[in-house]
Amino acid sequence: MRAQVRLLAVALLVFIGVKAAWAQPRELRIVFIAYENPDQLMEDVRPVVAYLEARLGRKVRPFVASDYAGVVEALRNETADVGFMGPLQYLIAHEQAGAQAILGEVYNGQPWYTARIFVRKDSGIRTLADLRGKTMAFVDPLSSSGYLYPLETFRRAGLLAKREEAEQFFRKIYFAGGDEQALRAVLNKFVDAAGIGQYSFAMLRPEERDQVTYIGESPKIPSHCVVARKGLDAASVAAVQAALLALNDGPNRGLLKQLYNVDGYVKVTHETFAETERIAKEYGFLKKR
Amino acid sequence: MARREGKSRSSRRLGILGFVGSATAAWMAVALLGPAERVSAHIVPAEKLHPAVASYRRMVFLLNLNPVLWDEVHKDSEVIAAYAGRVAPAEGEAYKHAADAALTRVMEAAASADGLGPQERKQAARELFELSTRAVARTVAAQLDAAEKSLGDYSKASRALNEARQLWAAFEHEIRHSDAPFFAEAGKCWLTMSSALGNPGVLGAGYVAADASAFRAEAGEIRGYLAASFGAEYRAPELGWLQPLPVKSPTFSASAEVPARLPPGSEINKQLPRPRQILNMTARGVNESETVLIALGDMAFDSPYIFGEPAQSLQISCNTCHNKSITNPQVFVPGLSHTAGGVDVSSSFFAPHANNGHFDPLDIPDLRGIRFTGPYGRNGRIGSLREFVRNVIVHEFGGPEPDPLMLDGMIAYMNEFDFLPNEKLNAGGTLSGKATDAERRGEKLFRTAFAGMNRMSCASCHIPSANFTDGRRHNLGTVKGSGPYSRDGALDTPTLLSAKYTAPYFHDGSQPTLRSVVEWFNAQFKLGLSTAQVGDLTAYVEAVGDGEEAYEDTMHTLEAEMEEFSFFLSAYEYLKRSGKQELIGMTMQTIAGEIRAHKWDVQDQQYLPVLDRLAELMDEAYTASQRGDVAAVDKKVAEYRKLYEQQKENLK
């Protein structure tokens, strides 16, 4: 009987060991988003991958997706363990695939940013209400700072109650495909205003900056985040968090440039996105429960 | 300070692709945000262009020059051909064949005994311009076709549309300035097409279907415009300067002026940190408020308004190339430069009337100690600094005849430029007790007569007691002469003082380091120096060329710039008494322009409006000076001074 117990204990230990080994795959798969040249991106992230491999003590395999849908899909079908995305994409990934935000990016010392409503200084437009019946450029129908939060800015100003009303409020809405395209559309007078991320302004050349200003600003938007797929083991999540957080002040800080040029990372949880989630539900991007 | 952008789509793309290897980008930060964010706005980032567009625009610039650098044109035509070949293979192949044939013809003619005549050159340039314009226009249409065919496959369609949009930039500058109605129309077309792509959503959420008919209509409009303007029948109008003008468009304005631009690949930003400028009077503790002639010269040195077009519109001043009176090793303009820090100032671009017809870029010289380094020009062709500066203004940068007082001011200012202090040198140019053993061994070699140098030593020409120059011209064989046995290779002996900070070396910047210079002499004149001796001699030359605090210890230049603008303004009362209305206007214009160029450097952006107001006051003073309203100018100048005094602690 004692021998049987011992055997059972050994078997149990072997099982736990195998399970532990199974739960921690040999390689960590990270999906990056590339907007232009995937080959260049792979080249750029090579030092990051090398750092993570050394730090995590396991192979890290980078993948490239050409859009957020690809990143989210990779997490959902478990071809990737970790990915980078915006808050709205994260909320969709969380809702539909159980993904978990584990780190937030830091910009200028803050893990948040805002959207702004830019107009030309010489347009005579001074308030958000002045934009009634005017033309408007957003970035993308699934952009946090380039659509969702600009709409929220108008809603909070009492000018819109829901997304559909934007079609009536503005004479014409365009999705310019990028922050810079939207801002340049304002600069070049193709549209009256643009709702885009606050940092877009730095894309203009100095002499161009004098021609535009902003007349509205959104509430704080949680920064873009690092997201783990559903079921990624806690040890791997903790290791990735620790490795990326170590970049904040450590000797490898320079690698942040390769990671979307952020200032650093902070730990986040799903709660960080609670307000964004509420807004996204209001606008129909997420199911209302 | 890291660069920061908006955090969706293209902005993030820039974030990950734009920063690598870009010191310029590293200084681009955030604007309109708050105290924590800064920009260095006078460091203007390069325009982001599609490689084929960059090649096209550079090629167009090159084709307008005399001489045309055909090898460079060839490189750009290869880029266009390769891209066109990928997008529209048959047309790309046809372009390559035709461009290669034209280039082969013209390069053979250029290499022939008769050389290339002006008509042949212009004809070949026109042919290549027309071929390339048609080819690039075709790539826009081809990418629009590709996007249209891919509608429904968002990734593919948006990539093709993005390419088309970027390619459109090949013509956008000319269309903006010569066909404003269609420029606006096209802007809406691109926005509509982008919107019509729809959106694939994420896991079904946010899905928007593509709108094929809206896309087709707008794409058709762009394609139609390009076909009419730059299609198969396109011939460049006889307007002198080759540029893609849409003359067939019903809304084209023949009287519109298209501003000149420098070609892609150009760099005219000043360096950061700035080199430390030492003005003799400042080093002596002189109160600057009463050195008005020097102040006038300082203003003129920083003013693009002393030059003609296109330098003026491009905001090029003496300070662009001789940043803080030193040298700007970054300056590069394709077609005018052969290496960074060198420019052909006798080219056809800035002052066509004074073009010498051949490509002879020169390394930009350091102006430190210029009162000791005459004669002037790399070949020492002009003995008088005043005459030399006038020549730069009128015949190198197409400016009007300079006011004699302004010229006096510039000379007074330039005569203040001092060498860097150097503790390793005694007054007579011998090494001081601070020198190392290697430097002392090097000094001995420097003063050794070598058989290979006709029993002369390095010190024979770089005379230590005469600021390491002899003020004479010598032919060392570094210049390719006009022909066999020509005698046109003599160059002015450059000083070695402060030289450690003025790389590259030689008149053409062909030597990257002082060691390579020593090695060149060793080989050229068979000096027989061992490796150790080359090291010693280099150590000595570096010690001679050394200096204390060669660069400023801050990256923030606004405070110093604002002080300098006040210095400019200190000449106002004197100019008023002298009846120099034009120089008063120039001073106001220069200060306004300089404030606007530097204002984004302010570390606390809540003070941007103060800088805006200061610039406006100078605008208003300029306007008043133009109508001869002295009282109004007085008032604006007083307001400026008062506001600056109140706020100067904040303008950093």
For the largest sheet of chain A, list the strands in their spatial order.
2-1-3-12-4-13
SSE topology string of chain A: HEHEHEHEEEEHHEHEHEEEHEH
Q: Into which percent range does the helicity of residues of chain B fall?
A: 40-55%
Range of strand content of chain B: under 5%
Order of strands across the main sheet of chain B: 1-2
Strand content of chain A: 15-25%
Characterize the largest beta sheet of chain B: strand count, sense, and whether it forms a barrel. 2 strands, antiparallel
CATH topology of the largest domain in chain A: D-Maltodextrin-Binding Protein, domain 2
Quick tags:
heterodimer; A: alpha/beta; D-Maltodextrin-Binding Protein, domain 2; six-stranded mixed sheet; globular; B: 652 residues; mainly alpha; Cytochrome Bc1 Complex, Chain D, domain 2; two-stranded antiparallel ribbon; 23 helices; disordered N terminus
Give the arrangement of secondary structure elements.
The complex is a heterodimer of chains A (289) and B (652).
Chain A: H1 2-23, E1 27-33, H2 38-56, E2 59-65, H3 68-76, E3 82-85, H4 87-97, E4 100-106, E5 112-113, E6 115-120, E7 135-138, H5 144-156, H6 165-169, E8 172-175, H7 179-187, E9 193-197, H8 206-209, E10 212-217, E11 221-222, E12 225-228, H9 234-245, E13 264-267, H10 274-282
Parallel strand pairs in A: 1-2, 1-3, 7-8, 7-9
Antiparallel strand pairs in A: 3-12, 4-12, 4-13, 5-11, 6-9, 6-10
Helix pairs in contact in A: 3-4
Chain B: H1 10-17, H2 23-26, H3 51-63, H4 70-87, H5 89-111, H6 118-149, H7 154-178, H8 180-196, H9 212-230, H10 280-283, H11 292-302, H12 318-321, E1 342-343, E2 362-363, H13 385-396, H14 404-414, H15 437-446, H16 458-461, E3 473-474, E4 491-492, H17 514-524, H18 531-544, H19 558-569, H20 572-577, H21 581-598, H22 608-626, H23 630-647
Antiparallel strand pairs in B: 1-2, 3-4
